[in-house]
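Entry type: protein chain
Record version: 2
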Amino acid sequence: MGYTELDQLAINTIRVLAVDATSKANSGHPGAPMGLAPVAHVLFNKFMIFNPQNPDWVNRDRFVLSNGHGCMLQYALLHLFGYNITMDDLKNFRQIGSITPGHPEAHDTPGVEVTTGPLGQGFSNAVGLAMAQAHTAAVFNKPGYDLINNYTYCIFGDGCAMEGIASEAASTAGHLKLGNLICIYDDNHISIDGDTKCAFTEDVLKRFEAYGWHTEWVKDGDHDLEGIEAAIRKCQAVKDKPSVIKLTTTIGFGSKLQGTGGVHGNPLKADDAQSVKKLFGFDPEQSFVVPQEVYDLYRKHSAEGAAKEQEWNNLFQKYASEYPVEHADLVRRLSGKLPEGWEKNLPTYKPTDAAVASRKLSETVLEKIHNVIPELLSGSADLTGSNNTRWKNAVDFQPPEYGIGDWSGRYIRYGVREHAMAAIMNGLAAYGTIIPAGGTFLNFVSYAAGAVRLSALSHHRVLYISTHDSIGLGEDGPTHQPIETLAHFRALPNCMVWRPADGNETSAAYYSALTAKGTPSILALTRQNLPQLENSSIEAALKGGYVVLDAPNAAITIVSSGSEVSIAIDAAAYLKEKHGIAARVVSIPCFEVFDAQDKSYRLQVIPDGIPVLSFEAASTMGWERYSHEQFGLNRFGASGPYKEVYKKFEFTPEGVAKRAIATIDFYKGQTPRSPINRAFQQIL
């Protein structure tokens, strides 16, 4: 295998860059990069195939740093191998506007595959990246054309191993026999609280073995480069299991504080930084120094990667002549564009059509569009029959040896693992050839909240099909009835929460979710049937909010969403018939989209001069932006048949009418300003 002094110099260069960057920022985590530099050197220089000149080449090997606080390791590597990360970028580590933020963010930094920070998320993303490779290879590889054969490598630490999401994802990967996934566990025995013996004494390898992983242990991760290389080679030879290498390292290797919690999350003291440099043969008075021979070593490997990409491009060109349909499809997928005219398949509805639950309306959309959007992969966290996420002729994504599906299958059985499902979908989306959709109950999207937040932060096109969206699920009671969930996710930046009121609005939700390349969507869908509305249309709903019932000289506007819109319309009829009061009704299926419309349009929908009442069978929080008074549910729900539950809380035409009259009386003699009219726009 032949490691030389130059290899050691390269390893020490990575360590010293991590020390310098964290020292200059007076912030950061030098310990993990110093301990992981040997394995990173072996992995990047001996194994990984990539081209820094084209970080998006589809068949590159993927690398995920799940313990993202150690990101100076990754930034140093990316700089040294020739990605567009300059020495000035390293000097601006953790500073405003830099492309070297405090944890890796994919949309900021070339060469960073996924946004990692909360521990365990990156590990789970890596499982998604490996699944995406397996599926994409099954769809596009042909005899003589091994187009898609990359590996996914992931480094994770004790913190990731402790997080429940990583256990969910590891269990999933073991079931799926993902031989293209190799994870390296940084066994340094240190977390923020100090030695892991205070909280984490399990045998991690035994756990992974039980999950169905191949395991290796390199006992001297500080020096044994040959052992590291041999372990990775053994893992590559195992094709029917994911692999984990336990790598026992010394955190902060070379520091006076090595092996202690003191080097985990704080820059080294000045004298310690100088002694580290001396120990590794660097000038203690100089900072951010890279010996030319280290650049040369790494740039040579990058040039080999560029040559491999060129070979691949030539192969792909030949593929185009033999498999023109598949070639065009892969090119289109990589562009992020949907197939021409796909939206013509979206179902539309007339008011005379039957009342249908929006979870069933969603199923109808999937049934109509799955053939024309082949990159759409659906799935569910063990709620397929409740979420209605599977089209009739779907094939499951499974290892072929189980006899229940194959790698080209487009339906994923996530098991009861909501959080890992969401993070895995972020990995699927990041791969670049797949649009993932996954189902659970809306209340349990809260279980997945950490990963949903990263969907939004990472600009991933991910669809969360979230059924049983309200107290309308009835008998399952308060544990399953979401109250705060809509408010929570509406507050999340760059996330569309769609709560459609009928079939046309459901089709609009899918149109919006599938065309928004950089935004995840939560589709909140009912268990109970909803009537098709008189004035709904896909076009109107795509504005996020529209007038569903107008009335001349209206005394009140009622704004609502989802299953409550039809009740609001019935309340308007009741007000007219019983009290002679004219009411307008507005449907707002998506706050995020409505807020993006011109102010003039929003003022047409919610005009000045009329009091506004909001109505939703959930927390009233957030509705202040569209209404003067709010009618909703600021307590937990109740167990019983759904109509009885609605009655209990007066979510009936009569109950809404009562609040509407109270609102009209309260604002009598005033000319209320529309809530749309504000002193200033919020900062976006």
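Comment: Residues 379 and 412 are 4 Å apart (CA to CA).
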